[in-house]
Amino acid sequence: MEKACIDINELVNVFSNTHGSVYQSDKLNCFYVDFGGKFARFNCISLQKIKKVVEQIDIEALLLNTKRADFELVSFNGCEHIYLLNALEIVALKDLLQGAFTMFKLNHLINDCLFRLVY
Amino acid sequence: MKDLMRIKCLISQDIETLLNQQIKKEAHSSSLYLSMASWCNQNGYDFSADYFTKQSEEERMHQLKLFKYVLDMGGNAISPEVTGIKTDFAGFREVFEDALEAEIAITQSFKNLASRCHKEMDFVTMEFLNWFLKEQREEEYKARRALELFEVIGEEGTGRWEIDKHVNKITYSED
Ligand SMILES: [Fe+2]
Ligand SMILES: [Fe+2]
């Protein structure tokens, strides 16, 4: 199913780590996050929002709190997807999203230099 | 691969974050000036109360100007939460000292933003910021002149009453 989606929509792998991948669809102007057993679609705004939510989780506090399990719900108002993740998975998702955004930045620089600055 | 983030938005995430922080600072200034207006009014400094109310409106206008820019460029403008506004002042003079201090902090904040724009070569935002940089000249000038009245007139006798009458007359002209 995921494989089919990647092929049909000619998805580009933006960034991967051991836990998952972020893909971009130039056809549909959107992103797919393959993580935690989910293949979820995001647009620019929702991807930025989910990244912000993940970055705002205080992982240290989560690990030090002995009164509760280290699980956290990751979502935001209006988000179609909900992740129930433990501390390690949160670290992995954070790494995945930050990696993806670094690649976006790099891609932006390349686009600027190669295509936009040609006279 | 398409540059989707750039297609969506002219400004970078870093600049957007800084502009949102500035929106919050302007909102804070607006509330602070209103708080000063309230204190002045309650202590019988009517002209100063009017002056600070006007300043408060101006800061609100600055906030909205930044807000509109972020949205116009395709960014996410965040309506700020404003907390911790000072409501008690030790005296008439302290109000003006705080006002100048607040303006100096705002000027510094705009300098930081401008420096970030130069680093990123975001000349579009830089050009937008020029209006604010120029505005800060006037804002600091007025706050500084108001505070100087305390030296020139002096607080003794009817001094404060005299100072209050003069605050509203401070104007700034470039030439
Ligand atoms: Fe302002
Ligand atoms: Fe101001």
From TrEMBL, chain A:
Protein name: Uncharacterized protein
Lineage: Bacteria, Pseudomonadati, Bacteroidota, Sphingobacteriia, Sphingobacteriales
Organism expressing this protein natively: Pedobacter frigidisoli
Superkingdom of origin organism: Bacteria
UniProtKB/TrEMBL annotation, chain B:
Pfam families the UniProt entry points to: Ferritin (PF00210)
Domain Ferritin-like diiron: from-to ranges: 9-154
Main location group: cytoplasm
GO biological processes: intracellular iron ion homeostasis; iron ion transport
Listed EC numbers: 1.16.3.2
Organism whose genome encodes this protein: Pedobacter frigidisoli
GO cellular component, one term: cytoplasm
Cross-referenced InterPro entries: Ferritin, Ferritin-like, Ferritin-like_diiron, Ferritin-like_SF, Ferritin_DPS_dom, Ferritin_prok
MF-aspect GO terms: ferric iron binding; ferrous iron binding; identical protein binding; oxidoreductase activity
Keyword tags: Cytoplasm, Iron, Iron storage, Metal-binding, Oxidoreductase
Catalytic activity, reaction form: 4 Fe(2+) + O2 + 6 H2O = 4 iron(III) oxide-hydroxide + 12 H(+)
Protein family (similarity comment): Belongs to the ferritin family. Prokaryotic subfamily.
Role according to the record: May alleviate iron toxicity in the presence of oxygen.
Domain of life: Bacteria
Protein's recorded name: Ferritin
Binding sites annotated in the UniProt record for Fe cation: E26, E59, H62, E103, Q136
Subcellular localization: Cytoplasm
